[in-house]
Amino acid sequence: MTVPAPRDGAAADASTALKTDETVPAPPDETNGGEGPGDVVLRLTDVVKTFPGVRALDGVQLEVRAGEVHCLLGQNGAGKSTLIKTLAGVHRADGGEITWLGEPFAPATPQAAMRAGIATIYQELDLVDDLSVAENAFLGHEDSKLGFTRRRSTASRTREILARLGHAEIPPRQAVRSLPAAGKQVVSMARALSHEARLIVMDEPSAVLAHDEVENLFRIIRELTAQGIAVIYISHRLEEIREIGDRVTVLKDGRTTAANLPARGTPTRDLVSRMTGRTIEYVFPPRRPAEQRDPLLVVDGLGRTGEFADASLTVAPGEIVGIAGLVGSGRSELLETIFGARTADTGTVTLDGARITSVGRAVRNGMGMAPEERKSQALLLDEPVYKNMTLASFSNFAKVGFTDVAGERKAAEKTADALELRPRDVNRPIRTLSGGNQQKVVVGRWLLEDTKLLLLDEPTRGVDVGARAELYQVIHDLAERGVGVLLVSSEVPEVLGLADRVLVMREGRIIHEAAAGDIDEDAVLDMIMAGSLTTESILEGEPA
Amino acid sequence: MTTQTAPPEAPIKQQRRKLDENTLRNLGLVGVLVLLIVVGIITKPDLYSDPTWVKNNFLTILQQASAIGVVTVGMTFVIIGGGIDLSVGAIIALAGVWATTLATQSYGAGGMIFTALVVGIAVGLVNGVLISYGKLVPFIATLAMLVAARGLAAQISGKQTQVSANDFINSLASERLLGIPLLVWILFLVVAAGWVLLNRTTFGRRTVAVGGNPEAARLAGINVKRHTLLLYALSGLCCGIGAIMLTSQATSAQAAMANLYELDAIAAAIIGGTLLSGGRGTIVGALFGVLVFSTITNLFAINNLSTEVQNMVKGAIIVLAVLIQQFRYKSLTQLFKR
Asked: Transmembrane residues, as ranges (chain B) (predicted)?
């Protein structure tokens, strides 16, 4: 069913005229609540959800019909997760209207949403590894009599559901632990069906799957929709949306920027342009003139099976190199391998002539890293700021094995000044600091060492706008001092604004390299997500 | 893609069917038991040539395993549910002492059993409330209970040994049914009930869910806090039963009874394949774990070796068992990462 796409015109018009009637083409069947395919089952009007300091949803419109696959598209932080959690009963909307099957809908708990017929399959599958397939499918609403589980009927009901999903070959009594990721996903869907779900929300279901398994997933989705079940499908991969989706709604900064675009007919350029051009102002320090220097870090042909392959890059002293890529593109794995935290299968990492094969060597040779999971990978949350600051260097302060607390404090205070840490009290437990200031400490830790190269993984995640600008300044100051910086971020504007040179990563490979000034957000996003139109759009893209 | 009925295209890859991990471990434990008996035969061939002695010795091993076995069943549930109960020995002492006060004994066997069970459940409930609603770490809450309950037991008994004058209670250890001591029957009953509870009821299934993935359990609508509370109450109940059994064996109770039972019970559960981090474990394995310890004790006794040597061997066995378990768990998780 390939409908010839109306080139540019129609779709673009529909979405520029947003917030008018065209956003939600008023269906005539709203009152009858009928069951025929194509009836609107879910409608969101101006939904708002505020968290302290953030307006995560700021007027979302969404309309889902029975038996359709409705795709949600948007950059990280656009509000997709908040939206599906609101539907799943994890969050409650502050404003706007949600209508489900013709009735107002505001689930207070995940169970209430389930009972109403909305099932959510989260990215990290919420299964219990040591229970069987059938036990997981019916967890929380077991088929039982007087507390005794009815194993036979549970198994046969599960078998029925699995057959419906086209996976009758999975034995209901097999432990979930022994299933591959694709099998676990089938079990998650079986759980959704065991609740008689009429809408299944799938959050990046293909992220954990290999290519042939994605085909399987699509076949299941087609069977579900043929039974009249509606599916909300979230994915960053445009080709998937083209293949499985019926309509697309695009979110940006918590707002619907385009609703109900045809999934197949809308040109990629149009979709991407709805997602980009963020309204949040990024304040980047002015770019310094580039100077040519010999590379400090040389990564040559680095690869790890199943994660990334053939990655080669260089970073010169004082240079900021940014890697743009989605979660799952292998970017964090690449960074951790460069740092020696993962063992490379192929290739080499050289820093200033020294081979890096372990974290110990990396640190001794002047490499530092601020990992993605700040709280779990980088901080001792209950310890004071100064101890966190000197974590990588406290042996420099120690005398014959005894720590020199006064010396540590003094050094930490100096760094705190340089970082404009707020509050500046280095004796406070780091838990009490804001995300941005915690991140400053993580970065500042390496200022105390003679760090030559700093690896930053999502440095501004969970950091508010004001602190972001300060962090950017800190990163720039480091580069001024001759430190090389290699930075990973899923926020394209950040990479473009901060880095001197940009590498684009997709599905484990570095697919493009350019000076930051020679490439724009649309082009990068296009490469990250679709890949198909890359060359075209780079060539046609606005001259920088 | 022309027909409506789409046949499964790429079936989900099945893991190679191997012997089930639990069966494998249980076979290993049976092997250890056989090995211990062989060592016994080699070191004391004269004793083992007497069939009546062999039979009676076998029953002695079972009888000595009975009380700790019952406690281990409760402990296994708590550990599978993601917790730990360090207070089991202390609960037994408190329940045993409370059940053998003169006042309680005046109500007869029924009163004594009732008291022991109620005290056990009550202390378990206190543990559970502190842990699930007071948000105390299980280790700390039950460690505090370990100290407090023994203190209360000493207070009640006035540090005296309280003799049980009840014939029915005392007969549990001395009488036999079908040639098997009553205490051993109780052990079998509790193990059987524990197995059914873990493997055939919603309670057991939810225990695995709560210990294995609390967030998934919560999202599936399971009341994780209440379930945790019930797990500690169950452990307390098992301690109450154990208190009666120990009292019957010694025909007395005192504040120092069931010393270090928490260690034996945890060790037996772990050797039996219960994961200390929760979410996995078996009742049958736990029973084998108890039997291994009890057989070792017996082996040392018939060879007149000191309890000091025995404790050292026990410690070595625990470390070895956990090392093996960790090694296997690691290699398993690595397999799945690939």
From this structure: 23-41, 61-79, 86-103, 109-130, 137-157, 177-198, 229-246, 283-306
